[in-house]
Amino acid sequence: MKKLLLSLLMILPSFLYAQDIMEGTTYYLPKTVLKINMLIERTSVTPGELHLYAERYLKKKDVASEASDNYRIAKMNIYTESIPDTAKQFTARVDQKHSINSIKLNSDGIILAVNTDAKQPMPKEPFMPAPKPAPLNPHDYMNQDILASGSMAKMAELTAQEIIDIRESRSQLSKGQADFMPQDGAQMSLMLKNLQQQEAALLQLFEGVTEKDTTEVVLTFIPEQETDRYILFRFSRKLGLVDRDDLAGSPYYITVKDEHVIPTNQAIAEEGKRSKDDANIFVNMPGKAKISLQGKDAMATLDTYLAQFGKTASLDNELFGKKLYTQLIYNPITGNIESINTDLVKK
User: Does residue 303 register a pLDDT over 50?
Assistant: First the structure.
């Protein structure tokens, strides 16, 4: 056993010395991900206490008789973001042989720039629904006779009469025929507003209450290859967004078509010219793709470039040698060159 340990200790230093120990900054190139953003509107209907009497006293038909929820996709669009591509991890050489002073990374380790600053893409602002007015309580607008009524039928009759009286008062105000006319326009507006609010509150007893709420949902899809009509999710008008395997909803299909278009770049090193002293500055040459998402009631399309649909290439080592000083800014979504500027190094 002692002889074996001694042999291992003799081998270990030479093994470490043989490794290519590289000083520099380790970074990732990005992988493009698709974000499917949806605004889903829910319409909730609550029947009124007096809905059974709506037709008898107010001639209103088709009022809600039971609670229900109804969903729809109000808006849908596709945009792109990025994640680190763990298969594209590199270490840039920052040493005396290369004119690399700084490398900017984002919080995920994706390279953003070399020898210059780069602005990180601003995160998408979340959807903020508009504030809803405070709900009206019909019981706050009932007169004493309505509150004292002994049956639902009597309450319905008195409430309907109150609604008719409110409408008549509003009509007289508008025509200038009311017994107590307001002194100015502001007072007139306030009185009309109050009458309208009273009528709306009492009508809820017959018509019920309809409320609409909108929520934002963001789904993530990472295309690794061409995809034809892949079920991304299902959507039900009664249940809203459901899982892709839930047959209660209608399917929404995503299709990703590779256009087989890759941009060219003269800064790319020729194949076979790389050496062990290369600066190891790599870029993506993304491929163009056409994205479509469609279902029963909504659709969205996007023409974009995907990092993983192209190829990865090394930049010419001379760009980061001792004779040239190169400033490079990446596209943070695709890893392609967004801008490049080269100057001669002054001696």
Answer: yes
